[in-house]
């Protein structure tokens, strides 16, 4: 198993209400799940291949709860990546070189029945974790926007966090509001739903803690 490590910032958006039951071992509140994900890799490597400074993204769709499988996924890799970097990122994103079920990539990969051909495209991605703001643009494929949840009473920003000390993705996530629209190769469209902003530090063995 080739050792890898990724450290960076994530923005993800799914069709659940704010909070997302799945974060607490529950079931999706719509009965099914569709989600988009963007990750800015600030530091990273796969073996001797440097992955720092690249962006990745993906869209997912499951007909029921994630753990029941039969999911569909499309992966997007920064067009700036070299062939070695592309191979390394796709290996990580599909659960390769990873201890069984140790990361969110490995867990999700185990639930996917239809994996579309990866796209090597411009991934224009910005995320401010503390500010609960994000913007992802992949022309012809995916748009995702995130902002803070706002009070329906006075419009003020509401801040909430999820702390998962034993999670397989993050330790702490900021909760915000997200909207996503995917065109190809998969379609999804939702707004004012669960947005997740987090610092990720993962390696071949899981979440790197403390």
From TrEMBL:
Pfam families: DUF1326. It comes from the Bacteria. InterPro entries: DUF1326, UCP033303. This is DUF1326 domain-containing protein.
């Amino acid at each position: 198993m080739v050792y890898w490590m990724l450290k960076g910032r994530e923005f993800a958006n799914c069709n659940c209400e704010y909070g997302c039951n799945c974060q607490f071992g529950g079931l999706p509140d719509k009965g099914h799940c569709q989600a988009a994900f963007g990750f800015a890799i600030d530091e990273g490597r796969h073996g001797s291949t440097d992955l720092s400074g690249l962006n990745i993204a993906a869209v997912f769709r499951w007909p029921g709860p994630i753990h029941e499988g039969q999911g569909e996924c499309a992966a997007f890799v920064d067009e700036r990546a070299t062939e070695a970097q592309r191979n390394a990122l796709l290996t990580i994103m599909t659960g390769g070189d990873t201890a069984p079920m140790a990361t969110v990539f490995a867990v999700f990969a185990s639930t996917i029945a239809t994996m579309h051909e990866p796209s090597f495209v411009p991934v224009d991605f910005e995320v401010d974790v503390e500010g609960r703001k994000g913007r992802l643009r992949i022309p012809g494929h995916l748009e995702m926007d995130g902002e803070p949840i706002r009070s329906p009473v006075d419009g003020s920003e509401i801040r909430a966090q999820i702390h998962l000390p034993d999670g397989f993705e993050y330790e702490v996530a900021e909760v915000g509001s997200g909207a996503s629209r995917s065109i190809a190769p998969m379609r999804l469209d939702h707004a004012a739903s669960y947005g997740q902003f987090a610092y990720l530090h993962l390696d071949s063995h899981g979440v790197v803690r403390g």
